[in-house]
Specification:
Layout (H helix, E strand, L loop, with lengths): L23 E9 L2 H8 L14 E9 L11
Antiparallel strand pairs: 1-2
Length: 76
């Protein structure tokens, strides 16, 4: 995770946020890091919210669906 920008990435846990209306929580099972993930560590651009977890490419399973959420059911 990146706690400040510019800064260094570190391993750590991120507190789960409440799933809001129309949102879904995805349990990531695979992620790729690339040059786009390095830019925020260099401060270009600065992320709008910190801490930030890198991984602009990810695949996973729907873990939770917020009220009014549509699409893939939990477990898919």
């Amino acid at each position: 995770m990146l706690e400040q920008s510019p800064g260094d990435y570190r391993y750590g846990d991120v507190r789960e946020q409440t799933v809001g209306p129309g949102q879904v929580r995805v349990r990531v099972v695979a992620s790729a890091l690339n040059h786009m993930d390095l830019w925020p560590a260099l401060g270009m651009p600065k992320p709008p919210l910190l801490p930030m977890v890198p991984g602009c490419d990810a695949a996973g399973v729907v873990a939770e669906v917020g009220e009014g959420g549509r699409g893939s059911p939990v477990g898919r």
